[in-house]
Structure formats: structure tokens, C-alpha cells
Fold this protein.
Amino acid sequence: MSDESVWLRPHKPPRRVLTRERIVAEALALLDEEGIERLTMRRLAERLGTGSTTLYWHVKTKDDVLDLALDAVFGEAGPPGDGGWRARAEHLVTAWRAAMLRHPWSITLLDRPMMGPNALSRTDFLYRTLEEAGLPDVGAAAYSLSTFVIGSVTMQARERTADLTEHLRPYPALARHGLGHDWDATFARGLGYLLDGMASAT
């Protein structure tokens, strides 16, 4: 990763009333309302009621803002839950899914290096939890859970409201099982299948 990453530069002190926290909060609001395409440094500065020079004191580029906003989404997953390894893993990935669904634009940024403290701390917690379970391959287990969450959120966010019944008629199994999801219930069952498999491997 380039040493120009926002995570590898010193966190500058507040300049007047503008802080990094306030920048991130306003960026989240803008992204939720209008999407990534509408986020520019000029528009963000306008929403903050400040000049671009003051904004650039804290963040150099739009990529900085996106990195900070994405890490804030991870922060919304909240503190890890209590209980055994399975309960804690389930709590973490379920909360992560809920946070991304509140901010669907975040799904398109998951190919970025996630070096922020919220993303790293929660990923580290997941690895430690799976270590505690005694799984033979912690990396594979963590990969399975994270890709399941990402895939589930991506499919839900892209769901179309159009009636596909006629279009899918030639594909009977898909027509029976691929439409009309209760997304929360489907996610919970799928997660259960994954965790059952992990439990049997310990």
C-alpha cells in the first residue's frame, strides 16, 4: 500500500470547528442520500459549510474520504457479542451485514485495502474467535463467512422489484426457490449451515 494512504499519515488536529469525525459523518450522509458518484470534495466542503482548503487540511483526496467512510460503516457493527465462539461469530457477521445494508454504496468499495481501525479490529476479533473454536484452517473459515456476508448483501441490494415469474418459468427450481426471499431468514439459515459445518470440523 502506498504511504499516501490516509491510514498511514498522522491524524491532524482539528482546525477550528472542523474535525475528521464531522467530515466522516457528513460524508456518510451524502453517500447515503446520493451515492458515490455525487461525492466530490467541493460538494462535501459545501455541506460542511467550509472552504475546500480547510477540508484538504484533514483529507487529501476523495479516496481518503471513501476509506474513512467505509471504516465508519464497519464501526457500526458495534462491539463483539458475548457467549461462545459460535454466538460471537454469528453476532459479528450479522451486525456487519446490517451495517452494509444501511449503506449499500459500501458494497462497491470492498475491493479497497481495508486498513482502518474498525475493519482491522473486527477482522482480528473474527480470527481470534475462530482460533478459539479450534478450527483446522482459521483463514478458510473466516473467508467463508466474509464472502457469504458480502454475497448476501450484494444480492439483496441488487434485487429488482420487477415480476420475474414468467421469465423464470423455464427454470422451475430457480422459480421455486429464487424469488420472494425473506432476506433476514434466508441469511440466518445460510449462516447456520456454515457454522454447523465449522462446528463439525472442530
